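[SOLVED] Need 3D model of a two-part complex

Original post:
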Amino acid sequence: MAVRTSLRRFELPFLGKAWIAAVFAVVLLLLGVALALSNERSVANEQARRATVQAEILAGSVSAALAFDDQPTAQEYVKALHASPEIEAAGIYDQNGALFAGFADSGGPLPKHGAPHDPRVEKGRLSVAVPVAQGNLHLGTVYVRTIVEPWTRRASRYVAIGIILTLAALLIAVLGSAYSAASAAYNSLQRETDARERAETALRQAQKMEAMGQLTGGVAHDFNNLLMAASSGVELLQRSDDPKRRARLVQGIKDALDRGAKLTQQLLTFARRTQVKPEVIDVGVRLQGIRDLLDRSLREDVHVDFMLQDDLWPIEVDPAQFDIAIVNIAVNARDAMPRGGEIDIEAKNLPGGLEGEDAVEIRVVDHGTGMQPDTVEKAFEPFFTTKGVGRGTGLGLSQVYGFARAAGGMAYIESTMGEGTTVCLVLPRCMRSATQEARRATAKMPDLKNEKLLVVEDDDQIADMLQQMVSELGGRAIRASTAEEGLRLFEKESPDGIISDMVMPGEWDGLELVRQVRRRNGDVPVLLMTGYSSAAAQAREEGYTLLEKPFNLEQLARGLSDVFGARA
Amino acid sequence: MLGTRLERWGLALALVLAPAPAAAQVSEAAVKAAYLYKMAAFVTWPPNAFASGSSPFRICVLNRTDVAGPLSELAHGAQAWGRPVVITVIGGSQEASQCQILFLGDGHAALGDSAPVLTVTEHGASSPGVVEFTVQQSHVRFVIHRSQADARRLQISSKLLAVAAAVVP
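Solution:
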């Protein structure tokens, strides 16, 4: 059934377009016939006109010769016509109608008697006779006979035109059907491409989940440690009165929470993105960013060492895919070292290293068991794994390979049994510089100058914290707990800027609120906060600045300086 | 093929030349009369050649009644340059300036050198006119004297010049 449906879908447009082409071809043929008929008529008229003109010219020039009985001169004149091939006979007759001079080449002799008559066609010959006159004197008649192109010859000419026309019509028909076939093929290709794209998206998601799964155990362990540190710190805080000790404990708790926040943020970043969206990144900054994640999530007996060259060239890749690739390689390296050890992550510039072009090389080196040569060969293949059931899906290194190829680079493995494995990524250098994020890190911390900020946040605790942070930075905060209330308050208090959560109860979310505000007051600074929201991408697309939760005072200050700076 | 064409061409020429002897049977005077009459159509006279708008087109014949006879027959009811053609037989010089065409025959007429009259003389006349008859191979032909025509402000059609036996500048 499904097959029949798809067949009909392919054939109907094909037949439809071929039909149009056929109609076009028939119209072309009819047009050709009409053209031939009109041409035929105009050719006949033209021939009659030409013969008449020839006769009139001869009549005009021969008048004196006829008047004064000069036969040789008349013969001279009439002979001039002999040169033109279509004239087969011409005669000059005196005023009594008697032949005076002339010739008949073929098609019978000249008429015995000459009298003027209009052009007429007889037996495939066109004849005309015009009077010869000078002033009032009627002097005689000039007769001219021409060959009309034989019917068969004309027909053969039209047949030739007809053949050309038919060929043209056929060509149109063929092209028409070829076009419709091609467009059908294109459509099916398009559908196939779409299907493949969906499959690839699914594969990327699967690869990501695989990597995340590999990390979860380690992260949970690490998180547990952080919680442990924080809760025991709080407990000790309650029992201690020594201000120095209390301060040290508070610092310890703060450090633990910071690490926890960082870890969650990295995991969220990791999970968030599914679309491939290349950005120009600094390899060093990016690798440092996942350092903690790797260090803590792999295993306690596995240590990650970074050896990064200074002034690494920027590369243009999808950052999330880059992170996943590094994590995948690191996870493989960890698994190759059952008794623990060191993983070296090295990055250096490779001038002319990628088919003559500049590139950046990233090597992940382990000192584990190594691989057999045939394992190395298959390592990049999807679903190839040496790990036991439930421990690996075989998608990890295939993601690494796919990522490197998509970025225009390459990936390869060097391995020696018993000594270890090196997975190497060579990615092309990008001539543009890295994105703002790296630069933004060095932006100076601003102070608010008593600006009034509208804080829209449904969670009372977070709202309270935010208000305190704003006043810490030197501003004043007013709070609304829903987007609708936020708009009312905005109109009443006309604050200098807005900090709003994205997801809130009520009809509007934060994005809709700031849209409404922007519609009323175009350039008011707006800072949106988000934990993990699918609306974040939309907000980013519309050009809003986003602050990812959890954030600290410094990050809030930076976000505010961004939006206030943009206005100034 | 070419041979056939040439044969036909020859046949056609023979056919064309056949009526020539018939023309020779007509008298020389009649031919000259016809020529005099037809010349009117190939010559343009200046406006002052006519006494008035209603003056006829006058063809005068001096001393040649054999020509005047057939000429009168030809000109009966005829028109030239929008005027009725009149044939006048003259004897003296007094009427010559009224003529548009004057056939002098062998005689003389007292006529100014610049009078707009197409003078026609026989071959060998002591002072030839604008047109001088001659006979070539038993055909009546004529010689045209351009200087005379110019002096009399007569415009001779190039068609007439083309069939002249000779044109004397």
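Edit: The CA atoms of residues 281 and 437 of chain A lie 9 Å apart.
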